[in-house]
Design goal:
mainly alpha; 6 helices
């Protein structure tokens, strides 16, 4: 193996590790490495390069991502992003409610109403005291 190939492997491994660490930070749980090109590109490029850029804060990226997934109607991803933003303290309940009001005017009232239900259910679940064991 040439030195160039070895350097490229080290760079990919470094980028992959940086991506796994950022992915864990973004979602707030441990992330294990996984197989396949799609997972590799997600970790190395999206999380290792795009999410680690200096231009936007993680909160700003989360809000932007929420707008995109809300506008696209990706309900399963919306739920994941809302829950993560609230759990990690990036957005508080009032900020989530403001996002609903703002987004509803752009994505349409039926989608906004559905989003409102998601947000209110999430907030109620997060505020519900956990029983003592």
């Amino acid at each position: 193996m040439s030195d160039d190939a070895g350097d490229e492997q080290a760079h990919i491994s470094e980028r992959r590790q940086r991506g796994l660490e950022k992915m864990a930070e973004v979602y707030g749980w441990d992330v294990s490495d996984g197989p396949g090109d799609f997972f590799g590109m997600t970790v190395e490029h999206l999380f290792g390069e795009v999410w680690t850029r200096d231009g936007l804060s993680q909160k700003e990226r989360r809000i932007l991502l929420l707008g995109l997934v809300i506008g696209s109607g990706l309900d399963d991803v919306i739920g994941l992003q809302l829950e993560t933003a609230l759990r990690l303290g990036e957005l508080d309940p009032d900020e989530l409610r403001d996002i609903v009001i703002f987004a509803a005017h752009y994505v349409g009232w039926p989608k906004g109403a559905k989003l409102n239900t998601q947000v209110e259910n999430l907030i109620a679940k997060a505020e519900k005291p956990t029983p003592a064991t």
